[in-house]
Amino acid sequence: MRLFRIAVLAATLCIGGYCIAAAQIVSPDAPADLDALCARAFADHNPGPVNFDESTTTFRSSAVPVLQRIVALANTCRNAAIEITGHTDSSGDERWNVRLSLARAEAIADYLAQQGIAAERLIATGAGSSLPIAANSTRYGRGLNRRIEFAFIPGDEAAPNRQRPPPGSSD
Q1: The pTM is what?
Q2: N or C terminus of the chain with fewer C-beta within 10 Å?
Q3: From CA 2, how far away is CA 155, in angstroms rounded?
Q4: CA dihedral 157, 160, 166, 171 (to 10 degrees)
């Protein structure tokens, strides 16, 4: 039964854009090896963009396949936490942008929780407009800046009881 689960790990990691070679598949008696494979998969994982329309917390439908790849990887590597960072373009007041970026991250965390990822594994943060990836002087660039980024915290590095701050907290 455990070997079947590990075979699913290899297939799931291939879906996320990273494949584990057959020689790297671990035995059921080596959970540390599984954590190492997950850490490597997380480091190499580039899920794709999760973008938002201006001033909203509703992600675009093009994000669903990206989020499903995150779910597949998270379901395979159950010891890992996922940090979800929301970003905005530079339009508007920065205090509003920070709140909006956190609300976007929380919307994604809620979606992932609805897909079965334990809420304790999800850490939502908001960066506002402080880390643009494109010029805010163009409509296209602003659209790229309204995004979510994921960071995976594998195995032992994940805080065991780390949770998202409650909505409205000043954390």
Answers
A1: 0.71
A2: N
A3: 18
A4: -40
Residue 145 lies in a domain: yes
Question: What are 109-135's pLDDT values in tens digits?
Answer: 999 999 999 999 999 999 999 999 999
Cβ contact 96:104 at 8 Å:
no
> What is the total count of domains within the chain?
1
The partner residues of 124 in beta bridges, in order of sequence, read: 84
Residue 15 in domain = no
Task: Say if residues 128 and 97 touch (Cβ distance below 8 Å).
Answer: yes
For 27-36, how does the pLDDT look when each residue is reduced to its tens digit (9 = 90+)?
445 455 667 7
Q: What domain range includes position 81?
A: 48-157
**How many Cβ atoms are within 10 Å of 54's Cβ, its own excluded?**
13
